Amino acid sequence: KSYVKKLSAHCSISAFFDLHGHTMKTGAFFYGCGASNISQALLPRIASLGSRDISFMNSRFKFAKAHNKTARAVVYNHCSVSASYTVECSFFGQQIPDNPNDLPLH
Question: How many helices (H) and strands (E) does the chain have?
């Protein structure tokens, strides 16, 4: 928190991302900080359109009191960075589509 506050005194912080790995779901998704602010969903939506690995449908933007001590909440509430997210990424890779023809060719 103190580092972000010092940094924001010298320059504008446009976005904050707290990156997490998880084992319960495949793919990636976002947690935001404000269900009432539609702009919170814009970046995750654009990211999901640009990559099959990111699920907009699994992203969440409601903010419960239990999450007040998360990095995204602290930066959002105390450092005034409205685009503050936790990005959850699977240790198991992307979601496998039902149709094998939908797999990306590398």
Answer: 3, 3
Residue type, 47: A
Return the number of other C-beta atoms located less than 10 Å from residue 106's C-beta. Answer: 3
Distance CA 54, CA 50 (A): 8
Question: Which two three-digit tokens encode residue 41?
Answer: 């969903």
Mean pLDDT, rounded, for 66-91: 84
Q: Is 21 exposed, middle or buried (0-12, 13-18, 19+ CB in 10 A)?
A: exposed
pLDDT digits (tens, 9 = 90+) for 59-72: 988 877 777 778 88
- Compute the distance between CA of residue 82 and CA of residue 92 in angstroms, rounded to an integer: 30
Question: What is this structure's pTM?
Answer: 0.75
